[in-house]
Amino acid sequence: MTVSMSTCFYVEQFRDVTVVCFTCRSVTERNYDVVAEELLEFVNLVTQERPIRVVAELLAIREIDDMGLEMLRAFHESIHDAGGRLVMCRVQPAVTAAIRRAGLPCEISGSRSEAVWSF
Cα(first)–Cα(last) distance of the chain, in Å? Predict the structure, then answer.
């Protein structure tokens, strides 16, 4: 297992699955620039390797607004467009509800292990 850190999340590698664990409590207009910049850097790195299998653990996120939802949509689309798959896990109920209301085409799994083994 390899681990690397940023200010908004840390990354772990399990077999051929990359797990990005968000540590920020919100993804909103207030921290959009920081999270988006770090997430873009992550996407650029992870899409250089094959297969692209990403699990996003969102347990720490308690608040998300429209900008945060669009960031998640762009994250999902970037992974998908590169030929990969993204599964979100351990998502707070309020965040899950916001994702569903926004119509994001995200796979959401209950646990990290379930998400990792879904590949």
Answer: 17
